[in-house]
Amino acid sequence: MPFAFFLLPYKKHFKCFLAYPFAPLTNSKNPNTLLQQISAKINNLEDIEQRQILGSCTSILAGLRFDKILVNSLFQEDIMKGSVIYQDILEKGERKGEIKEGLKLVMLQLNQRFPNLEERLTNKIQTLSLNDIEDLAMSLLEFKDINDLDAWLGYPEL
Predict the structure, then answer these.
(1) Is the pLDDT of residue 129 over 90?
(2) CA distance 123 to 117
């Protein structure tokens, strides 16, 4: 199926579908001015769906060349929130944040309970998934000594 067929519902603004998103990447004497002009044209489109699609595409490509403060000031952030790619990036970032905070808490608890943890133990703990970190936090309450942590991490008894 030809690409133009996909754009038939947007026939009215066919040229802007091809030009606007790539405009930030073109060689221009005044790239900031060009970006401002393009964003103004996109923001003035009456059709909300077209404005969202063009705004998303253009802001993503503009982000390859321009400062994020400038891009965010010209394009509405809400436009990106509907993007599945944006949602995926957001979810991955939230997951990393949860793991980081979980590790921080577990390491504080472990260092309080067992000062001077061996590097091999901390290295193994750093590789745990979020579920494993949560399980370790609960199991830690029942550990009698460092051998329990060794066993929980799968190391043979010393």
Answers:
(1) yes
(2) 10
